[in-house]
Design a protein that fits this description.
The complex is a heterodimer. Chain A is an alpha/beta fold. Chain A is built from six helices and five strands. The longest helix of chain A is centred in the last third of the chain and has 18 residues, at 121-138. Chain A is globular, with a radius of gyration of 14 Å. By secondary structure, chain B is α+β, with helices and mostly antiparallel strands. Chain B has three domains: 2-169, Beta-Lactamase, CATH 3.30.450; 203-327; 330-478, 2-Layer Sandwich (Heat Shock Protein 90), CATH 3.30.565. In chain B, 56% of the residues lie in helices and 17% in strands. Chain B is built from eight helices and twelve strands. Chain B has helices spanning 10-65, 69-77, 148-200, 214-290, 296-327, 337-351, 371-388, 446-456; strands spanning 85-92, 97-102, 119-120, 124-133, 136-146, 333-336, 357-361, 366-369, 395-404, 407-414, 460-465, 471-478. A five-stranded antiparallel β-sheet of chain B has the order 2-1-5-4-3. Chain B has a five-stranded mixed β-sheet with strand order 7-9-10-12-11, with helices on one face. In chain B, strands 6-8 form a two-stranded antiparallel ribbon. In chain B, α3 packs parallel to α4 (214-290). Classes of the chains: A alpha/beta, B alpha+beta. Chains A and B meet through α1 of A and α4 and α5 of B.
Chain lengths: 150, 484
């Protein structure tokens, strides 16, 4: 199985637990990293000079909550898209509302997908299964560097 | 020409009036002068002829007594020299003609019995005169004069008066042209001023005032009126400016309130859902992971908790949609309503129940509106039609449209349970339901949302129903999308 991990950025502890549970039930072998806010995420991904850290290399997909304390999810997305190392990293924006404005902003900033946290977690698990499989498949391409050079 | 009188210029009217009345007066004077002259001339002619007749009678009296015809002929032949005498006849006392002077056109002397007509006739003047000697009538004298001289005289007189009259009229014409300016001048100036004010909306202009007469008073009154208008305009502008300032202030207050409301509903949508998600999510986890450890009552409670959280989520969704259709800006465009309805119907048929269902949607229905909002509205209407017709043997939903009086009326009909018309007032009010949750689930927000969408499109919605015989909703939308 693929060793690339899924990064979940989610401030709400309940949602953290539920999302990890859903992801595990979709693919129990994929490691899941959980971070709590935008600032922490930026520190995790970039060093002081703005260069990508080693953590980035192991990432397969990022699930990013739109609404985060301190630095918002959209802000994190903007950082990810402006750095060459993370430019092509698949990012799925997660939100608890389906405000059209959020959706538009997310796609404008280069999000790959957008999911609404549903009330029924069965739906979330289904969505995650499909998305995780898809992105893990995409990232299995051996020479990731050539993809990035496009 | 007189028919166009109303369109004449004031100057022309005044000139025409002056000349017309003058001409009428001059004509009347001329006609009466001619009449008097005619009368006088006739009297003069008459008396002249009487003098001539008298002299003739005197001269011929002696000759008549002696029946001296030669003498009589020589007496009357001397009258040939008088131009206007046409005929002279002398009769003796027995009535026989003793002598006659005749011209080419009058040859025979008239008989004395019956007596010939005397006085003025058409072309002649006739006169009978007794010839007397010592107060005894010895014969009669008959004399005819033609009126050529009279006619000539009158003709000359008419010509002279006509010339004089036309001359006077010419002088009056020149005078009237000069004088009408005194009257029409101020009026024309006033009218020009009024025109300029009306055209340029420049109320600072004033009309020149001519004097203390009515025209002067008119000018003064006009100027006062313009002054009043100027003053009122100034006040209107002032109050408009202050109104604009007030509107601006209100608008900024309102948009601030709107932004706050938006932030509020955004946070509602995020923050109210979060605990619900936890309840539902952990409820599901509990059921899946620890379900074995719960008895039937515990499982039932858990199911109720999860159902309640789903209902709560639906309520929040409904409220969010309601608030969104209320505050979202409208983007009006032509919408293919048939395609939109067909999409909704296909979704319903795909996820729906097993009941045999027939959905008829009239083809080629076009409206102008915000497609997202219209989708919300018709989704609610179709879902309602679907939901409330779920308990029959066969479901039938019809959507049709007619265009009438600049509006399109879209009718959504079902064969469901319908509702009691007594509660029609509550139908479109949020959180009012006409069915219990155990009969039909629902939030009570759907039709309120439909109502809001329709109102924002400047349309109307009405519903008719009978319990057990289905419901009939009619949405009326303006065909023209120009109003906002």
């Amino acid at each position: 199985m693929d060793s690339r991990s899924i990064l979940v950025v989610e401030d709400n502890p309940d949602d953290q637990v539920l999302m990890v549970r859903a992801l595990n039930s979709a693919s129990s072998t994929t490691p899941v990293v959980v971070l709590e806010d935008g600032e922490e995420t930026l520190k995790f991904l970039f060093d002081k000079d703005g260069k990508a850290t080693k953590n980035v290399e192991s990432l397969g997909v990022v699930l990013l909550d739109v609404k985060l304390p301190k630095v918002s999810g959209l802000e994190v997305l903007r950082h990810l898209r402006s750095s060459p190392a993370t430019q092509w990293l698949p990012v799925i924006m997660v939100t608890s509302s389906d405000e059209p404005a959020d959706l538009m902003d997310a796609y404008r900033l280069g999000a790959n997908s957008f999911i609404t946290k549903p009330i029924n977690y069965r739906e979330f698990v289904d969505q995650m299964t499909v998305l995780a499989r898809y992105w893990l498949q995409v990232n299995k391409v051996p020479d990731c560097g050539s993809v990035r050079s496009f | 020409m007189i028919g166009q009188w109303r369109y004449w210029r004031l100057k022309t009217k005044l000139l025409f009036l002056t000349l017309f009345t003058s001409a009428l007066g001059i004509s009347l004077v001329c006609i009466s002068l001619i009449f008097v002259e005619n009368q006088n001339y006739r009297k003069q002619l008459e008396s002249e002829l009487h003098v001539i007749g008298g002299i003739l009678a005197e001269q011929s009296a002696a000759a008549l007594i002696f029946d001296d015809k030669e003498q009589l002929s020589s007496i009357i032949s001397s009258l040939r020299r008088i131009d206007n005498i046409r005929q002279v006849c002398i009769y003796n006392s027995q009535g026989s003609i003793m002598a006659a002077l005749e011209s080419e056109d009058v040859r025979t002397c008239p008989e004395l019995e019956p007596a010939p007509e005397t006085g003025f006739a058409k072309n002649a003047y006739r006169m009978m005169m007794p010839i007397t000697l010592d107060q005894e009538t010895v014969g009669q004298l008959f004399l005819t004069s033609h009126l050529e001289v009279l006619r000539k005289h009158i003709r000359t007189f008419v010509l002279i008066t006509a010339f004089v009259g036309i001359g006077i009229l010419l002088v009056l014409f020149i005078l009237a042209i000069k004088l009408q300016k005194i009257v029409s001048g101020p009026i024309v100036t006033l009218s020009d001023t009024a025109e300029r004010i009306a055209r340029d909306h420049d109320y600072t202009v004033r009309a020149p005032v001519s004097g203390p007469d009515e025209l002067g008073r008119l000018g003064n009154t006009f100027n006062e009126m313009i002054g009043t208008i100027e003053e009122q305009n100034r006040r209107i502008l002032e109050s408009r400016d202050s109104l604009e300032r007030e509107v601006d202030a209100r608008t900024s207050e309102l948009s601030m309130a709107n932004r706050e409301l938006e932030a509020f509903s955004y946070s509602v949508s995020h923050d109210l859902r979060q605990p619900l998600r936890a309840i539902e999510g952990f409820g599901q986890a509990l059921e899946e992971d620890c379900g074995e450890q719960l008895d039937d009552a515990g499982k039932d409670y858990l199911r109720r908790i999860r159902n309640a959280s789903v209902r709560m989520a639906n309520l929040i969704d409904g409220l969010l949609i309601l608030s969104r259709v209320s505050r979202q800006s409208m983007e009006k465009e032509p919408v293919d309503l048939t395609a939109l309805l067909q999409e909704i119907a296909d979704e319903l048929l795909e996820i729906g129940d097993t009941l045999p269902t027939e959905i008829n949607i009239q083809p080629a229905m076009q409206v102008i509106g915000d497609s997202r909002m219209l989708r919300v509205a018709f989704q609610n209407l179709l879902e309602n039609a679907w939901k409330y017709s779920a308990k029959g043997e066969k479901r039938k939903i019809d959507v049709s449209a007619v265009t009438r009086n600049g509006s399109i009326e879209i009718a959504v009909k079902d064969n469901g349970v319908g509702f009691d018309m007594r509660y029609i007032d509550k139908l479109f009010v949020a959180f009012n339901r006409l069915h219990t949750p155990s009969e039909f689930s629902g939030t009570g927000i759907g039709l309120a949302t439909v109502y809001r969408v329709v109102r924002r499109h400047r349309g109307q919605i009405s519903a008719t129903s009978e319990v057990g015989k289905g419901a009939h909703f009619v949405v009326t939308l303006p065909v023209s999308g120009k109003q906002r």
